[in-house]
Amino acid sequence: MFRRMSKRSRNIAWRAYALGVIAFTLFTIPALILLGLMALISLDPDDSMEDRIMHPSLATAAEGMRKYPNDPLAQYQMARYLYDTKQYAKAIPYLKKALELPSRSDFPGPDVRMYLGNCLVETGKRKEARAEWLTILKDMPYNPADPERTVSTQAHKQLEAYP
Question: Is 0.90 surpassed by the pTM of this model?
Answer without folding.
Answer: no
